[in-house]
Amino acid sequence: MTTTQVRVLQEYSALEYILLGDLCDLLDEPGDKTTTKWLIAILDALLETLPREFDLEEQDGYLSEVTDGRPYWSTKIEGLRCEHEKLFAKLQMLREELVQQSSFTRIAREVRTELRDWIDRLIDHEHRETGLLQESVNLDIGGESG
Fold first, then answer.
1. Which of 6, 53, 60, 86 has the greatest number of beta carbons closer than 10 A?
2. What is the span of the domain harbouring residue 86?
3. Do the domain assignments include residue 146?
4. Is residue 22 part of a domain?
5. pLDDT digits 0-9 by tens, 46-59
6. Are 43 and 91 in contact (CB under 8 A)?
7. What is the DSSP string of 13-50?
8. Domain count, the chain
């Protein structure tokens, strides 16, 4: 990955972090038309940012720096890569649910719970990506046993 690609990926990650923080803040607000409007706006921004971030991560081969040295981890890595599509599809579905809702009570209960769960899944996904990279680097530094 080039220096420019790394910089752009960092910018996407920073924007994603800000949007997720804003989303969490809004999920703590009472459900009304204004809150729903802002939730949709944030989801739109995430739906624009995430595919760009995912595409950039996959441009030179998703986690290729890991698979180059450990091709036997390809199943783990492919599982993480497939999660990109699932996370994006779920976020699109949640956005559509918000747009179609007439009941703010349901938004407050069900969609908000699903959004919190989605945030947790995204964070877990990113932690597993980072963990895999760190484990690979640690094995490179310390030597691989077995």
1. 53
2. 30-141
3. no
4. no
5. 999 999 999 998 88
6. yes
7. HHHHHHHHHHHHHHHTS--SHHHHHHHHHHHHHHHHHH
8. 1
